[in-house]
Amino acid sequence: MQYQSQAVAKPYFIAAIGLFVGQILFGLIMGLQYVVGDFLFPEIPFNVARMVHTNLLIVWVLFGFMGAAYYLIPEESETELYSPKLALLMFWVFLVAGALTILGYLLVPYAKLAEMTGNSLLPTMGREFLEQPTITKIGIVIVALAFLYNIGMTVLKGRKTVINLILILGLTGLAVFFLFSFYNPENLVKDKFYWWWVVHLWVEGVWELILGSILAFVLIKTTGVDREVIEKWLYVIIALALITGIVGTGHHYYWIGTPEYWQWWGSVFSAMEPLPFFMMTVFAFNMVNQRRRNHPNQAAVLWALGTSVMAFLGAGVWGFMHTLAPVNYYTHGTQITAAHGHMAFYGAYAMIVLTIISYSMPMMNGRKAANSGKSQIVEMWSFWLMTVSMVFITLFLTGAGVLQTYMQRYTDDPQPFMVVQERLELFYWMREVAGLVFLIGLVLYIISFFVGGEEPEQA
Amino acid sequence: MSETFTKSMARNIFYGGSLFFFLLFLALTFDTESALPDRDNRAAITEQVAMGKRVWEENDCVGCHTLLGEGAYFAPELGNVYNRFGSTDAIKAFIASRPKDGVPGRRSMPQFNLSEEELDAVAAFLKYTSEINTNNWPPNIQG
Ligand code: HEM
Ligand code: HEM
Ligand SMILES: [Fe+2]
Fold first, then answer.
1. Would residue A321 count as lying in a domain?
2. Average pLDDT, chain B
3. Mean pLDDT estimate for chain A
4. Which pLDDT tens digit goes with each residue over B52-100?
5. A407 burial class (0-12, 13-18, 19+ CB within 10 angstroms)?
6. A308 part of contact set with chain B, CB < 8 Å
7. How confident is the model at residue A458 (pLDDT cuts 50, 70, 90)?
């Protein structure tokens, strides 16, 4: 670690991993509710488990992004962080606000939570992924502003590189588009239209800038390839991401009351969205092949390569599968969507956070560059267990989705939703088993931090 | 990547391209806003429908159901439930009759203890939703 203040990233990363565990536990609860319908009913209804699962996901990924920024911005800027104290304060604010919100979901009925937090004053609750009480949303904005101020001031007083510029641009975009979560008109069509300005313009827009810059940073560090080369790739990738991804938002405007022309705009532009993800894969493998040195942290290199491949599969391939309007007409809102959502979120955003954690944690724990060989072997096992089981989760959901689409929507004799779901039970059981393997992988991941601590670094 | 294609060319494509396509997206958004009144059934948004949307949100119905294909995939699509059930009364009756402890072994919907006014409102909201012009989605009555 070159600058003391980089160490504020550590609590962020630890919190991220802790919340990740919570996310998976609630995923497994829901996975069981899919087949044992009344499991934990009425104590934890499905919708409550779902908001805990998805909100924990978003919060831990945000913790990961912030930790990544606190780690890499001082190093890129070649200066200490503007205010480590503010960073630590915001850590606690965010953690406490997050924990209270999750407890609120679990301990009181949602309608009661809405009442307690004054949702009627500025109604923003009860929409997918944006379930947080309005005051929590305001808290998120405050934390984001303090965070942006802190890293912004750091860059201003230090070296300006393409990587920290793009990272800040992405994080600023994240905060700006989140503001649309406060717009919730009575008109359902408009509500849905601008809801996607948060969700789609995040994952297929500004978050790709964050993803690209973190990946570029780790590749510079682990391969020693010339910065000029890496920065050029980064620009091309994010250019393609925004050129295709902004108008690509149209792939959500086919059937929600918006004009028909979106079927063209959405299909054509989103069909090109896999390109930047494909380039990211080519980029990562090219840089590793052209490496000037063998970095001792082989686990971090594995995570970086894995991210590029899984993001391409989940977002690129599984996204393309259902993005053309004539296909989406049948698959819209089925298990196909769930399959894609899982692999894309894991492959791109969970894995990039795990990549930067893998790269930076050894240094924050006082090592020179890497963990012991023993620890890395355990970590690599966890990589394969989690990643392969996510591939299987995706395949089982895809199987379920294809059948659901056929039986409920495509055949001449469409069956009711609940009837079809019962026929898909086998797939859901297999998804649950794969989910358990995922959990084992995650436990192993945590264990990897505690083994081989006394042993020397991998050379 | 080749030497003739420089980093500053890549940077210009990024800024120029992003700006251009963002402006295009804004233009499409303006056009959509002006086309919506003929499609989004806004004339039907009464005070009751607006209250129904709030009931929908404050009970997190979207955490189990899809509405026009968006939401959760655990329970039936409700964008066209008005057509499936045929009346707001049938919708109200279904919601009001959910057993408190669920249906043994079956995916269950909570008993929300909604007032008569709230039931009327959420049913009216679902009727309004079913009349939005969705380009013929869903493909059939099963949603
Ligand atoms: C890392 C990037 C991506 C992530 C994290 C992601 C995640 C998601 C998630 C969570 C949903 C479900 C949203 C909901 O609940 O309604 C979704 C929907 C969708 N995604 Fe992605 N996605 C990504 C990239 C892509 C790409 C590149 C494409 C196209 C090539 C794509 C195409 C779609 C489509 C068409 C839907 C709508 C599905 C439906 O109609 O139900 N996604 N995505
Ligand atoms: C490992 C075990 C997991 C299980 C059993 C599981 C299960 C589920 C279930 C049942 C849903 C709700 C689907 C519905 O609405 O009906 C869901 C939603 C979701 N999960 Fe997971 N999950 C797991 C892991 C993960 C991981 C690792 C990620 C990402 C890093 C993730 C991201 C998501 C997302 C983004 C959604 C919303 C999807 C959408 O709206 O289309 N899950 N999960
Ligand atoms: Fe999208």
1. no
2. 97
3. 98
4. 999 999 999 999 999 999 999 999 999 999 999 999 999 999 999 999 9
5. buried
6. no
7. confident
Backbone angles phi, psi at A265, to 5 degrees: -55, -45
Cβ distance of B102 and A38 shorter than 8 Å: yes
Mutation target to probe the A interface, by most A beta carbons within 10 A, among B18, B23, B51, B95 is B18
Closest-lying ligand 2 atom to the alpha carbon of residue A30: 10
With 0-12 / 13-18 / 19 or more C-beta atoms within 10 angstroms meaning exposed / middle / buried, residue A230 is buried
In a domain, A41, yes or no: yes
pLDDT band at A459 (very low <50, low <70, confident <90, very high): confident
Specify the residue with its C-alpha closest to ligand 2, atom 1.
A435
- Let me know if residue A356 belongs to a domain: no
Question: In this complex, which of A36, A131, A246 lies closest to B25 when CB atoms are compared?
Answer: A246
**CA–CA separation, B2 and A157 (whole Å):** 34
Cα–Cα distance measured from residue A369 to residue A359, given in angstroms and rounded to the nearest whole number: 8
Q: How confident is residue B3, by pLDDT bands cut at 50, 70 and 90?
A: confident
Q: Are A296 and A302 in contact (CB under 8 A)?
A: no
Average pLDDT over residues A157-184: 98
B112 reaches A (C-beta below 8 A):
yes
Q: Do B7 and A255 touch (CB under 8 A)?
A: no
What angle is formed at CA A113 by the lines to CA A112 and CA A117, rounded to 5 degrees? 120
pLDDT for the residue A454 = 87
At A453 the pLDDT is 87
How remote is the CA of residue A411 from the centroid of ligand 2, in Å? 28
Class of domain B43-143: mainly alpha
DSSP annotation string for A52-104: HHHHHHHHHHHHHHHHHHHHHHHHHHTS--S-HHHHHHHHHHHHHHHHHHHHH
Cβ contacts of B41 on chain A, cutoff 8 Å? 257
Is A290 near chain B, with CB under 8 Å?
no
> Could you read off the pLDDT of B101-122 as tens digits, one per residue?
999 999 999 999 999 999 999 9
Confidence of residue A388 (pLDDT cuts 50, 70, 90): very high
CA A98 to CA A135: how far, in whole Å?
Answer: 11
pLDDT digits (tens, 9 = 90+) for A202-258: 999 999 999 999 999 999 999 999 999 999 999 999 999 999 999 999 999 999 999
Interface of A with B in 346-405 (CB under 8 A): none
Structural domain span for residue A53: 1-160
Top mutation candidate among A131, A342, A382 for ligand 2, by most atoms within 8 Å of CB: A342
Nearest C-alpha of chain A: how many angstroms from B132? Answer: 6
Tell me phi and psi for residue A88, to 5 degrees: -70, -40
Q: What is the mean pLDDT of residues B21-40?
A: 98
Task: Confirm or reject contact between A412 and chain B (CB < 8 A).
Answer: no
Quote the number of domains for chain A.
1
Instruction: Provide DSSP, A145-209.
Output: HHHHHHHHHHHHHS---HHHHHHHHHHHHHHHHHGGGG---S-HHHHHHHHHHHHHHIIIIIHHH
Question: Can you give the pLDDT at residue A298?
Answer: 97
Between CA A328 and CA A274 the distance in angstroms is: 17
A444 in a structural domain: no
Domain map (residue ranges) of chain B: 1-39, 43-143
